[in-house]
Amino acid sequence: MSTVRRIGVLTGGGDAPGLNAVIRAVVRSCRIAHGVSVIGISDGFIGLVEMKARELALADVSGLLVRGGTMLGTSNRGNPFRYAFRRPDGVEELVDASAMVKKNFEKLGLDALVVIGGDGSLSIAERFWRELGIPVVGVPKTIDNDLFATEYTFGFATARETATWALDRLHSTAESHHRVMLLEVMGRDSGWIALHAGLAGGGDVVLIPEIPFTFEALIAKFRARERRGRPFSVVVVAEGAAPVGGNQVFAGEDAVTGWKRLGGISYQIAREIEARGGYEIRATVLGHIQRGGTPVPTDRILATRFGVEAARLAVAGEFGRMVALHNDEIVSVPICEAIGRVKRVDPSCQLVQAARSVGIVFGDEDIDAVDLSEG
Amino acid sequence: MSTVRRIGVLTGGGDAPGLNAVIRAVVRSCRIAHGVSVIGISDGFIGLVEMKARELALADVSGLLVRGGTMLGTSNRGNPFRYAFRRPDGVEELVDASAMVKKNFEKLGLDALVVIGGDGSLSIAERFWRELGIPVVGVPKTIDNDLFATEYTFGFATARETATWALDRLHSTAESHHRVMLLEVMGRDSGWIALHAGLAGGGDVVLIPEIPFTFEALIAKFRARERRGRPFSVVVVAEGAAPVGGNQVFAGEDAVTGWKRLGGISYQIAREIEARGGYEIRATVLGHIQRGGTPVPTDRILATRFGVEAARLAVAGEFGRMVALHNDEIVSVPICEAIGRVKRVDPSCQLVQAARSVGIVFGDEDIDAVDLSEG
Amino acid sequence: MSTVRRIGVLTGGGDAPGLNAVIRAVVRSCRIAHGVSVIGISDGFIGLVEMKARELALADVSGLLVRGGTMLGTSNRGNPFRYAFRRPDGVEELVDASAMVKKNFEKLGLDALVVIGGDGSLSIAERFWRELGIPVVGVPKTIDNDLFATEYTFGFATARETATWALDRLHSTAESHHRVMLLEVMGRDSGWIALHAGLAGGGDVVLIPEIPFTFEALIAKFRARERRGRPFSVVVVAEGAAPVGGNQVFAGEDAVTGWKRLGGISYQIAREIEARGGYEIRATVLGHIQRGGTPVPTDRILATRFGVEAARLAVAGEFGRMVALHNDEIVSVPICEAIGRVKRVDPSCQLVQAARSVGIVFGDEDIDAVDLSEG
Amino acid sequence: MSTVRRIGVLTGGGDAPGLNAVIRAVVRSCRIAHGVSVIGISDGFIGLVEMKARELALADVSGLLVRGGTMLGTSNRGNPFRYAFRRPDGVEELVDASAMVKKNFEKLGLDALVVIGGDGSLSIAERFWRELGIPVVGVPKTIDNDLFATEYTFGFATARETATWALDRLHSTAESHHRVMLLEVMGRDSGWIALHAGLAGGGDVVLIPEIPFTFEALIAKFRARERRGRPFSVVVVAEGAAPVGGNQVFAGEDAVTGWKRLGGISYQIAREIEARGGYEIRATVLGHIQRGGTPVPTDRILATRFGVEAARLAVAGEFGRMVALHNDEIVSVPICEAIGRVKRVDPSCQLVQAARSVGIVFGDEDIDAVDLSEG
Predict the structure, then answer these.
(1) Are residues C207 and C255 both part of a single domain?
(2) Same domain (yes/no): C133, C54
(3) Which residue of A has its CA nearest to C310?
(4) What is the DSSP letter of D61?
(5) What is the DSSP string of C303-343?
(6) Average pLDDT for runs of 10 along chain D of length 375
(7) Which of A77, A128, B301, C127 keeps 20 to 30 A from B129, CA to CA?
(8) Would you call D201 and B32 a contact, using CB atoms and an 8 Å cutoff?
(9) Which of D43, D111, D144, D204 is catalytic?
C-alpha cells in the first residue's frame, strides 16, 4: 500500500462530458492529497501497447474542468487482447498484445492503473486484474446511464441537458407551425436520456426501448391533443426504441440499413406516422452533439468525486474495484459486479409513473383511454 | 396619416427567433408612442380569410421578448390568392380568397397591416398593396439571411449561435476520437449560416451552395491535417451545398429522394467520403432546432428596432415599404425591391477570404496546395 | 378521499426556479390522472385572505416548464396569523386573519391545499393543518438546499449552475490579470451552493458558514499558488460565511451595516485581504440572479415529481405531510419533521473531503501545511 | 515588405472575450496564408521589457477560439515609458524602459508588432511607432464599445449577452416578488452595454452616463407601472451613470468612497430610491463576470477578422494603423485617429429613440408625461 508511488490513468471507449474532470481529480488528489505521481496514457489501452505515455503535473490539468472530450484521447481499436497489429506488408492482424501491456506497465514503473471507461473498457480492465495481475481501479462512464452497479455516471446529466435544450427549441416551432416534431436522442439499449429529457423538456410522447409502442397509440395522442386545441406534438425517441413486434415492421424497405446506419430510427418512425396519420413531420437526430460540450455542474462534481475516490482506492491498494454512486455517496464495488449487464428503465418505476401522470404517452396506452384523456 | 387608429399584425412562413419580439415592439410602440391600437391576426394570412383576430394590449405582449416562436401562429396554407377551401363534402379546392381578405380587413376596422414574413409572405403583402390597395408595411424575416435589400434579418444570429454551439460540442468528440464529423445547417440557397458558424466554431471545412466542392479537395484537407498530427476534422455543410457537377452525382441511388426528404445532404456526403477516403464519419442534421429557442440579444434588438420602425411607417402612412437594416441604421425600402431575389454569399467577399486565411477549406481549392498547407 | 374534487395551490416566500414546474405538475396530474380541478391562489397566503383565486386549466400551465418565477406570484407579507391589515385611515395593523383563511378556503369549495414554500411557509401550512384543520400538503422549496427532511429541493441545481457559470467567467479574467477574484453566492445559514459551485467551478478557496476561516489561511493559500506560478485565485464566498471569532472582527467600521445590507460580506472580506496581503481584489455579489432563469433539467424533473406526488397525497387524503426526496425516490414525511431546523454542511462529509483532496481550501487549514502544499 | 518574416503579438489592458480568437487568427493567417512566424509576448508590454516571449505554432492556438481570457496574459503595470522597476533594495522606481523595448524587439528578430488593446495600450503602441520607429499594427479592444474609429469591438457582444442573461433572470424574480431590481453593468464613460442590454433584456429603465437622470422620473415610472398592475420594475445602470447635478448629490456620506470602490453606484441609487419612494430594492453588480466566458459567435467572428487583417497589414508593411469595422467591412485607420477620444451614446440616436418608443425610460423624461404613459 505504502509502495504506491506512480499511478497510470487512461480513458477508453466513447466520449463523455466529464472525462477530463476525472483525469484532473485523479492528478490533483494524487499529488496534493497523496504525494503520488500520475502517468497519463494516450489513446486508451492502445497507449499501453504502443507505449504512449507522459507524466501529468498539476499545470497539465489546469483549466480542464470545463473542457469536453478527453485530453488523453481514446481509441476504437481498444482491446489489447485483440490488438490490430499492422504488419510491415500493411496487412492488419489481430494479436493478443496483453503480454506487451504487462511489460509496458512495468517499464513505466506503474503501481496501479485507473481505467475510465464503459462496459467494454471495464471488462478489459477486469481481465487485466484477474488474468494479468495488473492492479486496476475502474471509473464507470456512459452517456446512456445504463451501467450497472452505479446509480448515475458522469456525462449523463450533460447529455440530458443538451437533449432538453433541443426540445425547448423544437417546442416553439412545433407550436407556431402546428406540427409533429421528433427528436431522436441516444440510448440504444435503455431509455434514460429520452425519459429524463421528455420529463424536463415537456415532451408529449416518449419512446424508449423498454416499452414497445404502437403507431395507433401515438396517433390517438396526436388526435386527442388536436381536439383540445393543441394541433402539435413533440416526440422524444431513444435510438433503440422499437414498435411492438420489433423493427422488422420496417423490414420490407431496402433503405432501412442505410438509414439506420447514417440517419436514425426516427426517420422511419416519421415516415410511418406520415403514411398512417397524414401528418407532416420533422425529425432531428441529435447524435454526437450529446457527447460533447462543457460538462454541467452535476457531471463536474460527480466526475471529481469519482476521480478522488479512484485515486484513494489505488493508493490504498484496493484493486479490482470500481467507484460507484449509491444514495449520493461514493462507494466502491468489484468491477465484475458492474460489467456485462445493462441497467434498464423499469416500466413501472416512479419516474415513468410521474411522466404518465403529467400526460406523457409511451405508446403502450390503451388507445381509447388516450383518446379520451385531456393530455 | 392622422387617420391611422388601428393596425393589424400577422406573421407568415417559417418560424424564426425574434418574431415575438417584433410583435411586442409593434404593440408597445403603437400604444406607448403613437396611441394606436393593434389587432393580432392568427395563423398568417389565413387568419384574415377565416377572421381569426383579437386586440393586443400591453399585457398580452408581456414576457414575449425571450420567447421563441410566434404568439400569433403561422400557417403553411398561407396564400389567400390560392386558398385551400374545404368544401362541405370534404374536398379541398384552391380558390382566390383575396376579396374576402379585403372585406375582413375593413370589417376589422384596420387602417394598416404589418406583415412579418419571408420572401413568400412579402410577395403576397406586395400584391395586397398593389392589387387590393390594402395599406401594408413589411418586416423581413429569414433564418437564412438571404433576403435581399436588408443586410441582416432577425433570427439569423440565433440560428448561427445554435449552429456554433453544436460545432463546439462536436469538436471535443472529433478530437478525442480522431474522427471526421459533419454538421448540416440550414441554407438551401445560401451559405450564410454555414459560413458564419464555420468561422465562429472553428470548422475545418465549410460547404456552401455558392461554392461547389470536390471530394478530392475535402479528402486532401483531411490528409493534410493527419500529417500535422490532427487526425480529425469538423465539416459544416449548408443543406443546399452540392459537389461540382451537382447532386446528380448521387443520382444512381434509389434511397436519395428519401434521404433528401427526411435526412439531409450530409448523409450522402458522409457516405461518399467514407467510400472514397476510408473514413468513419458521423453526420448530424440540426434541422428545426435552428428555428427555435430564446432569441440572442442581437436578434432581440434588431427585431425590436424593426417593430418600432414598422409601427412608425404604418402610422405615417408610408405603405408598400419594408423595414431594412443598412449600415447599422434602420431604413425602409419598397417591398418590390426586396422580393424575388436571393442574397447569396459572394465567393470573393471579405468573410470568405478571412475564412481561407485561417485555413478553412471550401472544397474548391487546388488539391496540391491544400496538400502542402499547414491547416 | 373520494370526496376530493377541488384542490388549491399557492406559492410562498422567495423565488426559486421550478415553482412554475410544480404548479404545472399539480394541475396536469390533478386533471389528467385524477380528474380533479385546481384553483390557483395568488400572492401566497395573502391570496387566501384577500380571496384572489382562479381555476387553472391545462391551457393555463402550457409553456410553464421553462419559465422562472411563479405564475401565481408570492408575497413578503405572507403570514395570515399576523396579517398586515390596512385600515381605512391608512394605518397598518397586524391582525390574526386565520379565521378569514378558513372561511375563504370553504367558500372556494376546496378539499385540500398544496403549499409550495420554504421553512416559513411550511410552518404556516403546518399550523393551518394542526390549528385550523385545513387539509394541507407541503412541497419544500429553497434555493439554499438547507431544508431538513429532503435531500434536495428544486431551485438549488439552477442556482448552483448560475454560480458555476459565473465562476467559469471569473476564471479567465483572474488568470489573465493575475488577480484574486471573490464571488459571493447565496447561503445565509448553509454553504451548499458555495460548496457545490466551488467544486464544479474549480474554486481555489470556498468559505461557508459551517467552517469559520482565518485570513492567514487564505493568504497562505494565495502565496502558495504564487510560488507555483499561479498568481491568481478564485474564492467562493457564501453570504453567511464568517471568520473565526465572527463578523464582529469588522465591527469597528461604521459602514458595515450599510454594506451588509446593500452589498455583501465579500466586500468586507475583500477589503481585509487587501489590507493584510497587499492584493488587489474584485468582488462580485451574484444576488437575485441566482433565483431567476429557466430551471435546469434537474430542477424541472424534481419539481415535476414533487408536484405529481403532492397531487397524489391531496387526492389520497394524506394531509399534514410534505413531499421529499430520499435516495432518488419521492416519499412523504410529516411537515412538522421538516420545519424549524436547518440542514447544514457537515465539515467532515465526503463532499468537503473530496474538495480538500483536489486542493480546495476552506480557510481552517493549518497554515504551514497550506504553505507547503502544491494546490 | 517581403522582408517581414517574424511578427510579435501581445495583449494589453483589461480582459475581453475574443482576445484569444485574435491571437489565434494572427497565428493561423501568418502561418497558413503568409508563411510568417509569430512570437507571442507575455503579460503585455512588460513582456517586451522583461523579455518573456516564445514562438507560437498552430498547435499552440488549437482550441483557443472558445476560451475567454488571453493565453498571453496581460499586465496592469503596462506602460514601458513609465516602467515600475524593482531595485535590488526592493524599492520600486518608475523608469523609461522604452530603449529596452526597442532593443528586445530587435533581439527577438521581429519585423512587426501586433498590439491588441484598448485606448491606453494603443496610445503606447502609437508612441512606439512614432517615437521609437517600432513597426506596429493595432487591434482595438474594449468591452464598453466606446473606442473611437471602429463601429464595434470584440468583447462587447459577449458582455451584452451576459448582461442580458442576467436581466432575464432578474425579471422573473422582480415579477414574482413585486420588486424593483437594479442591475449594474460596465460602462464608466459610455452607456453602450446598458442601452443594448436594456433593449434586449426588456428593462423598464436604463441609466447611462450620457443622459443624466432624476429620481423623480424614475419613481414616476415605477408608480405608472404600478397603476397599470405591474408593481415591479427592472433598472439597468451603467457604472458611470449619474443623476442630474452629478454624483456629488451623494457626497455627504462617508461610506461613498468605499462603496464606489468595492461596490457600485447602483447601491447608492438603490438607497436613494428606497429613501424617496418607499421601495424595497435589490441591486446586483455584475462586475468582472462581463469580461469572462466563451465569446459569443459575433465576437469570435469579429476577432478572427481583426486578426486576419492585422496580420495582412503587418505583412504588407502598413504600420501605424489599426484595424476597424466600418459598415460590416474590415478596414484600417491610423492609430492616432482612434485614441484619446471616447465614442459616446448620442442621446438622439435611433437606438435611444427605439428604446423610448417601446417604453424604456432614461430618467430625463418629463415626469407628468411618464406619469400618464402606459409603459
Answers:
(1) yes
(2) yes
(3) A354
(4) G
(5) HHHHHHHHHHHHHHT--SEEEEEETTEEEEEEHHHHTT-B-
(6) 86 94 98 96 94 96 92 84 86 90 96 96 96 97 92 96 95 85 95 98 97 95 90 94 77 40 76 87 90 94 98 97 96 94 95 97 83 51
(7) B301
(8) no
(9) D144
